[in-house]
Design brief:
This protein is mainly beta and 257 residues long. The protein has 2 helices and 24 strands.
């Protein structure tokens, strides 16, 4: 399939239990927009991705999907987004792959070039939501902001991840790495663990320079944030901090450069 929509998403899912998009073996599919603001079908749907789903969405199969998003994000899911296979080439003027509740990658080959975060989740309000889980696949990410941004937890248990360009490479409230090959290049921090609660506290403290908390270094510790590395191979080339945890840092294994 080769499809261009000048007015909105190529695929728009407004109501479903869950949806599967299967890339047939050997197929080459190209979806794109015209790079102009989308016309919205109704006031309740602010669709802003070439593929936009308000329901759970799973990609599978062994074909290729190329997305050219000239307006904003490439793939957007308001619920849980899952990849179990396929090849994905995403170029986006906004975020590359974005979900509200979670992104789970079991397998697949991803090349994402985005002006904002390459992979992004946003739900930091609901318990058990907002995480990114990668247990396989090959990811090559080039980002104008974060390579991978998890609203809550980022878990990597396998796979090959290369962040060739980013502001911050991997970011989340917590970052757990148990295996895999990870290479990060960043203009600020390589890995950054900092929760939303801590960000709010920091803003409050900055607004009151004479607060006793500002005088106490222990007040800057974020009890909800940590980085834990227990396996795999990690290479970080950062112009800022290499590993930056606003809470705890645990190194239990792996090879770190």
């Amino acid at each position: 399939i080769t499809m261009t929509n000048n007015d909105g998403p190529c695929i728009l899912i407004t109501a479903a239990d869950k949806v599967f998009i299967t890339l047939a073996d050997g197929s080459e599919n190209i979806l794109s927009d015209a790079g102009t603001e989308y016309a919205q079908a109704d006031a309740e749907t602010n669709a802003d991705g070439v593929i936009y789903s308000k329901s759970d969405l799973t990609f599978n199969g062994a074909g290729t999907l190329t997305i050219k998003a000239g307006y904003k994000p490439g793939i957007v899911c308001n619920d849980d987004l899952v990849f179990t296979g396929g090849t994905y080439n995403v170029t986006a003027a906004g975020k590359g792959i974005k979900a509200n509740d979670s992104i789970r990658i079991k397998n697949g080959t991803f090349t994402v070039n985005s002006q904002d975060d390459s992979i992004h989740t946003s739900n930091e309000e609901d318990s058990g939501k907002g995480y990114v889980y990668i247990c396989g696949g090959t990811l090559d990410l080039s980002s104008g902001d974060d390579g991978i941004h998890a609203a809550t937890a980022l878990l990597i248990t396998d796979g090959k991840i290369t962040v060739s360009k980013s502001y911050e490479g991997l970011e989340g409230d917590s970052i757990d790495i148990t295996n895999g090959e990870i290479c990060v290049n960043s203009s600020d921090d390589g890995l950054n663990a900092s929760s939303a609660d801590q960000s709010s506290d920091s803003e409050t403290q900055t607004g009151n320079q004479n607060s006793p908390q500002m005088q106490d270094p222990s007040s800057e510790t974020d009890a909800n944030a940590y980085i834990r590395i227990s396996g795999g191979a990690l290479y970080v080339n950062a112009e800022g901090d290499g590993l930056d945890s606003n809470g705890m840092l645990y190194i239990e294994g792996g090879t770190i450069t």
